[in-house]
User: What shape does this take?
Amino acid sequence: MRTISPAVQLDILKQVQSWVKASDEKLTERAVAWEAAEKANQSYMPRADAERRRREASEEIGFNKIMIPYSYAMLMAAHTYLCSVFLGRDPVFQYEGKTGQGQDQCLKVEAMVKHNVTAGEMQAPLYFWLYDVCMYGVGVVGLSWKHEKIAITTYGMSPVQIDGVQDPTNEVETESVLMEDGYKGNVLYNVKPKELICDPSVSFAKFQEGDFFGRRIQISDTEFNRKVRAGIYFDNAEAGTADQKESGVYGDNPAYTETGPKVALEMKERKGFKNLWEVYARIVPSDWGLGTNEYPEVWVFTIANGKALVGANPAGWLHNKYPFDVITLEYDAYTLSSRGFNEIGSAVSSVMNWLVNSHMYNVDKAVNNEFLYDPSMLNQADFLDPKPGKRIRIKPAGYGRDIRTFIHQFNQYDMTRTNLQDLKLMEDIFQKIFGINESMLGVLNQGGRKTATEVRSSSGFALNRLKVLSEFVSSQGFAPLSRKLLKNCMQMYSAEDIFMITKDIGDKKPEAFTVQDIIGDFDFSPVDGTLPIDRFAQVALYKEILMAAAQLPQIAGRYDVATMFAYIVKLSGIKNLDSFQIVDDATIAREAQLGNLVVNGGQGGTAESGYVGNAEGGSATAPSVAGVGVTG
Assistant: This one.
């Protein structure tokens, strides 16, 4: 790491501090809505009712108001649809050649990126990403590169050497460290909206046009020192250590605090960590005293505990973008942040909660009957006893008198009996707002028998609204993310990183390739917003096609019916079809001569004695990446 003068460090520190202050002043307005969205996803009891319930702690507790997460059902229906559309594809990131690259090149690109998605464990961050956009109205993921090194320490005993001669009777303990390469590739991480540091002069939809974009992270001193040794950070004595996290940023969910103890992502006894601001900015390095480059470049600045600069490095990515991707729920490019499902439906949800709570309050009131009684005529302790099967003793003053003259029960009228009917009306309004009907919620339609066409039409119109949202998410989030993934692979992989791919369902010989074999530029194949085709429906369709092909010689003569049959079987989920293949003696002898099979009994064996080995001719020396499967 190059040396940065103290004056330049101070200038950078002041600039980043001003950026963080400007970001926090604007995001504080949104943080209130984000916390409300978190609460709306929970069915909880308001704090006042919970505290009263704990104080009373008796069997006479009456009705307690509850908040029901109506919008959560809509949110999860939309999230399920988005996950099915984007993450139901195989591979998740599909590419097409920008300048006429052939299918062979596209398959290699998809296989390489699929290896990153699978081995880099990107599936869960992608699920969280889509969930965040539904709940908060904005979802953010960050992208980085990882080259994992695995260290394994072993201990043993070895004889002492004296003048070059080992003495087996005299042994000493030895320690050896084995270093192995682990995963090498892209990794994704989620960024909670409250942890963001963003340029408030641009919207989230156009964050790449802002002067800066970053996040808050919490890092242990051990990890910090490791990165200092790796040259990522530099040690700054002024950084010190933090004794507590930054308030309100690291994962607290206020909904959990309503009825119980606080749940936070921290340890009370934890010591020795740093709160970091990791801010990416597009700057001209020569203007900042950071070199001679006079062209805009993305740099990353790291501030520890808000008071010391511990990192200032070029981002170094060929894509020349901030290593983040943002998706928003609303089609709004003119405000800082969009609203989530919970915020959009908050007004209707409040009305629905009032309808339920007011009705339950009246039911509770009716159950606890109201009486007018004369305590001079009857035993008050007997009358107020809440236990069932009570017996009330009358005082001498009430002997011989009509009981109805000193006990009177008031008539109870439930004025909220129509609230549940109004609740159904509000549910219909809720569904119209979000474009999600009962069939998408997994609820059978009410109101008599309906034809399959009517059900399909009502679901189709609702899906069209989510289809447009899916296309928007594809262009805003997944397309730029796919370009960064591929750019990073092309930049960071070398000829030593070998991948394997099986191009065709009938091709049993995997082909090895490296990043140098991929030539050209590629684009993300856009998602059309429709749900993936059901595999069993595909199997049924292919079955009809196969039967037609077998009956028409003109078709059977032009297509490989056996390969089509194998594809249909594997599409249905059966993976061991090759175990049932009939292999003749000539094929065995030919494969054995090529070295793909070893006949049982060695060179002197016969074909009838069977065979062992790798029937597909694959190599075990190169990392294998599964090929491209069904794209749906």
User: Anything to note?
Assistant: The longest strand covers residues 165-191.
